[in-house]
Batch of 3 targets.
Target 1
Amino acid sequence: MKDYKGEGIVDGIAIGHIVLYRRPALGEFEQPVQDTAAELARFRQAWQQADNEMALRYEKAQALFQKDRADIFAAQKLMLEDQEFIGRVEESILHDKRTAVYAVLQTSEFYADVFLGMEDELMRSKSADIRDVSSMLVRCLCQGENERRTETPGIVVADYLLPGDLMEMGQENLLGIIVRHGSASSHLAILATEMNLPMIVCPQLELNPDLESRSLAMDGGEGLIFIDPDSSTITLLKEKNQELIYRRQVLASTGEVLSYQSHRIELLANIGSIEDLRKAVANGCDGIGLFRTELSFLGCRRLPREEELTEYYRQCLDLMPDRQLVFRTLDIGSDKQIPGLSTEKESNPALGCRGIRFCLSHPELFKMQLRALLRAAVKGRAALMFPMITSLSEVIRAKALLQKAAAELKEAGLPYRDDLPLGVMIETPAAVMLADELAREVNFMSIGSNDLAQYTLAADRENEALAAEFGNRHPAVMKMIGLTVEAARRQGVGLSLCGELGHDLEALPELLQLGLTRFSVSPAHLPAVKAKIRQICKP
Amino acid sequence: MQTITHVIQDSLGIHARPAGLLVKTAAGFASDIRLTAKGKTVSLKSILGLMTLGLKQGDRMDITLDGPDEAEAAQALTAVLP
């Protein structure tokens, strides 16, 4: 047995034989052609066939995937039909006496190189699209010579794979995917997730021809690859697979309404990026209870621009048009660096200028984010939530800035929404004490249990030595939650809980008992929490 | 022949969506429509050509239109300039 550790991209277990994916290399088609007219006719015929197949592929993708995934193939069809692309290929055949396959590969590599040289990640990803278009053409030109059909389904191992390759091989022939080059944000990864195909990226794996048909086991969650696995490894992975299948079955029951003492229970997701949002959609949830928006501001060289944020938020709302998406406004403190902003060093960032305090002391930056949110919210069901509230005046000042942001958009003549539901985070003891007053200013509240526990118990949540004794389920924290539930009820506003307590399976019965009905947890925890709530609700 | 000179306003430059819109608009007319920017000239009816220019905010582009419906095409394109 030989094993490799790569990057796990799509969770899941696969055990089967290896199918090596061989891509035609430019060198194999180098010999010049004599009859250029015949070669040109051959290209045109293949192009016609490719154009038809691309239309079919788009139709098939529409049936298989959500709309924005299928659009990948609509965009590829436009590239195939591009006059400049066709012109270059034909010129290469006619003037350089190239074979049609060579001309297509050379032309697509020309465009792929241009795209790969661009700064913008989105533009770089177009290189995969043009390669996919050329793959389709080459396939039509070779008429089955490069077909990789297998008798029984297998695990495909390739240098890289394109969305079209997946469609061509067909879901029924695939057990898993291992590529040497790829990423979690690639189109391939997105489609593999939807097809439930475990996927690993492993650059160390050499594509030796002797791998063909050997047996392989993979764990897509951990990124583990075993070639010629021994029986104990197979047994272990099979057991793990049973567990995963059980979870998927629980997931498959989306649309099922859970209720506890005749209150509808809603299961929401906490996310930090559009990738998380995709996972949340795949794992089935009733909405997004917490979108941590700071990620767009951290780890980049410059501040994001309003247009970029608007577009990003729009894309997120497009992914979940029918369910609510709660954007928590920028929540950072002096322990995180934002490009272009010098923050004062603080001896105790957890008790420093963070959350809403930071936003109120940087009104221009805050308003920029608010404008982007208001503009994006024209479509979808967005809500806004302010973090780290400790006083009523903070809420009033934040609302005033929100109104200002709306007024600026109005003046600029840009479309926006100004009737979004507003909420506050309850994550400090002060906010619990003022919950009634705060609730009168907003439409909903959300308990941030991690910070609420840390500030209530005066125990640093990063301090592992304290974790055992001052865990989330401390009676003082539970009492704080109970007080907040009562205040929310008195004032008639919605209440949710986001934080690790929400996926603490042993805490769930008590939280339900306290009267909480909305839980927001990370996408990975959705299945287990759902299974537990189901078990509690239907004893 | 008609010409349009434009400086790109969109802070994201010419990315896929506005490029698609420009090309779709241009393709609807019979006139020959070309775009020159950064010393290169491409057909405005080609999405690949346009995208490979990698145009950004502040870049200047010159569009030349030549053909029977050049006036209408110029008007339609002006409405979708990024």
Target 2
Amino acid sequence: MAEPTPSRRKTGRPFSVRHIPGFTAIAAACFVMLYAPIVTLVTYSFNGGESIALWEGFSLRWYVSAWANDAVQEATVRSLVVAVLASGIATTLATMAALGTTRTGPFPGRMVIYALINQPLMVPEIVTAVALLIFFAMIKIATGYTGLAYLVVAHAAFCVPFAYLPIRARLEGMDLSYETAAADLYATPWQTFRYVTLPLMTPGIAAGAMLAFVISLDDVVITEFVKSAGQDTLPTYMLGQLRRMVTPEVNAISTALLGLTVLLLTAFFALTRKRG
Amino acid sequence: MARPTSALSAGELTARQTIVRRYWLLCLPALVLLVVAASGPLLIVLAYSFLEPADYSGVIWNLSGEGWFKVILNKDIFDDTVSLADAHMTIFWRSARLSILTTLLTLIVGFPTAYFIATRPKTHRQYWLFLITIPFWTNLLIRTYAIMEVIRNEGILNSSLMALGVIGEPLQILYTDTAVLIGMVYVYLPLMVLPLYAAMERLDFRLVEAGYDLYATRFQVLRRVIIPLVKPGIIAGSILVFIPSLGAYVTPRVLGGGKNMMIGNLIELQFGEGRNWPLGAALSIGLLVAVMAALVFYVRNEQAER
């Protein structure tokens, strides 16, 4: 790697090949721009007053009032139920698919599998949302069922690629020789999977499950179109609130969600970084 | 990982076919879910775009091109004269303009930022990167709300500008195109920085040094050495920002305040108050085609780089 070359100019700092004037300032501005709004939002969630612009002292009243709000409680429970079920389904299916696509050389149709799995990443969310609205409306009319299953299925589908990618990355980084060794020692395929492959790929599965959970928890657009009446999740509840007079209660809910996301992401990075 | 297939005997080949079938079976549940709840319904949308709208909502199963017709044209209800659908044109133009501007602005801010991170000592880079990643995974709605708080009339932007005496009264930014633009730049910025960083991390600084040795100025090195070398990252970042910008729904809805619609909001309108599902379906397919075209352009470019 290049080290700074000796100064070519008579004055100023030593000449660095990596330095470009102004770039550091723009980068600093970029980080400030990224975090200032979030920090403001979090700060005002602790505001004692009604205002989201005027600081009136520290207080936890908005957390208390959000917690006491039945609609918020219901939406929270619904968000968590959907996220747990959807990420569970997505992770299970993604694990199977990852095993199916990485433990062998290229086989016919593998590109089709990739395209299908990654499809939710490529199609605009609003288009998928509309498609599901139409499709589920047909089923709702045909069966009369309007429960939570629609949300779970929709979420599970768009969570699959997010669960699949880290699991596949983990499997691709794994040495096949362990599995070969197990097979040489007369382990059945199931035993090999249960005692060799599965423990080795667990960090990938956990990472995939976490991403899927975060993605499901954060979804607004598809949920907004798929949900039946009275099936608000936390994000769609917030979207509804933003149309009216906003109180710092929304800030409190946002901060709680934000905290959960950061927690899960930190865990995700700890899990995926181990291999260096 | 791939075993050479050419060296296999006939018996091994049938064994391999069994194995391949087993791998397909492993993928099957995921594929079924995705076909049922992601790809399949897109075909229904395509079909709906050629049907007649029902009075309240939904469709009448009669073949009709009216949905597609109405995407760009209007027929006068009194004298049947056909004219360009101005309202739609305004929205398409706004969507295209804001998406392109968002891409350009994120590039202008994101390029130096990615460069800054890529030139940090190796051990520090992952922390800087983590700082970019956190907003990336944070709920889009929360980030949009956060920016709304900043730019609203009583928000910190206006109040600090007024405290500094720059402006006498608050600037009305919220519920304008500018608000939507600021919001989209804010929420999609990490999507630009991450692929740019990936490209710059691999940048060989000996080439930069060679440029300086040949008496290039900083600007020449940037334009003739660095930018050509990280071009794949620039294209990847631009596509990653452009695609969700074009299909944006939450940001224009919250920051545009209902008036300043983009295509995503126009689509929603047809399934809500507009009550014209075929038109909404046609708009959705149109958006999908535009996005796919951008993706094909990207893949072609990627292959050309290799």
Target 3
Amino acid sequence: MSGIPLAPVYGPSDGEFPGLYPYTRGVHASMYRTKLWTMRMFAGFGIATDTNARFREIIRSGGTGLSTAFDMPTLLGLDSDDPMSLGEVGRCGVAIDSLADVRDLFAGIDLGNITTSMTINSPAAVMLALFVAQAEETGVARARLGGTLQNDILKEYQAQKEFIFPPRQSMRLVRDTIAFTAAEMPKWNSISVSGYHIREAGSTAVEELAFTLANGFAYVELAREAGLTVDEVAPRLSFFFNAHIDFFEEIAKYRAARRLWAKWMKEHYGAQDERSWQLRFHTQTAGVSLTAQQPEINIARTAIEALAGVLGGTQSLHTNSMDEALALPSEKAARIALRTQQIIAHETNVANVADPLGGSWFIEELTDEMEREAELIFGLIGKMGEGSMLEGCIRGIEENWFQGRIADSAYELERSFNSGERVIVGVSDFLEGNDDNDLATLRITNEDERKQRARLDKVRLDRDANQVRDALARLSLEASNPSVNLMPALIDAAKAYATVGEMMSTLADVFGRYVEVPSL
Amino acid sequence: MSLRVLVAKVGLDGHDRGIKVVARLLRDAGMEVVYTGLFQTPETVASAAIQEDVNVVGLSMLSGAHMTLAPLVVQALRERGSEIPVVLGGIVPPQDLDELRDLGIAAVFGPGASAEEIVRTITDIVTLSA
């Protein structure tokens, strides 16, 4: 504001700079001066037309990317009329049963011109098939589609627990999406390797960092087994981290993540393309840090967490809404969350200089320490896999190692809250105002469930039953042959209006279902 | 004799951080805790509660399905002739609280509920229902 001219980056001439290996300071030389992060707000609720209206509101308000939240039945590959779906349809995301829903979801939105992220894992291949089918129906070639499929099944077993098939069978579907997008969708990120859920499930920052990158290494090894080179797969992986409330530790985590990824890709996996070395990531502020007490103060928490993401060099950002410890966000609360990013981007000037904290003795030491601790965890995972990170991650899941560590860390943190060692404003201290609760939250009624079932009935009635039967028979046959890529069969089934539940249960008949052994 | 608690995840919600942490806190307080695992139905929870002869059932729900599924657990227990009280923890909007009580949920623990509050309330509920 005083007019002092600013350089795009500061540092000693013989020091490390952004845009150069190992990218501790950022993947681009001038970072946000050239291109701001994408303000990608996660949204989805009710039936497809409801979420379509919210998407259009996000685009009108200046959001620059879309991110779709699906409801629990969709995430678990069940149709809205499945008995297990009772009470869950459209509750914490949008209900998608067939191509008809995907069409309404993206009505009036040019899929060739906005990038779309789809937060779905077990049925990721099915959702990709539906998305391709919808785009092609509106005349957008699959090669033009830009976006990201979360498709990170390893962290589902470790943390988020939305699994259907056993781990090794799930990894076959991941392999098929990697190979398909590598061949046919040059602008698509095949996996968003996600630490967010690992952290939300209770891990420490170091565990989030190490487990996530280890999963990333596992996917690289999976793709290599499928005959792709590291440089064909690594540039298509993006990452997704949490921005928690421990401000400097989070910034150090992002810096360490970039450096670790670059080193492992180059030195361990022999990547030669610099895009393989560059870890790009999305950030979401920490849902678990929000309080139900005095919900308005969550705006302040989210702003601080979002700032950590920006100072850490994120490529895209979702800011949580103040009311999310109470309900799904209201439109007003979601708008304030987006405005929070816009203040950081356009008012504070923090985006003018890349890696502004680089060179701080504290931040540099914290970055080094997180890197060292993550390497120790990589060592443990590698040992479980006898040298293979892919095998180590799968065995770690099968032996409950990841799940146990995450539960232990969550418990330790909770004990520190209960013992009074840590303060949470509005919960442990500063309680005045806790009774004042007049925030209007979003209500989702069972009416949506009824409407969605009626929509699904109509789809089943209108489609060509023979075409559906043939498409599912082909899917079943090809699923039993591990060498076949299932994407073409899934796209055909999607175009025939086979439902998500039908496609997933066809696959489950071949792959089996995973049951987690309950442990405390 | 120590209290026996069945903690359960009903429906499709896989968020198990809260239930695992609360289970360990209840154990720390001297209770015996049985965990059902994920993706249970109201019927399987009711049967398990009766079979395990627990004093209270604790449900954890963060997906918004509590208004449908929590009362169904109460109903499944009562249909089997059991009066075991049911408590609920998770993301529950304040305006749902009265209706949940009317539907037979003995207590609701929202985000930020302390270990002390959960242990005390469960102990009181079991004492009153005995």
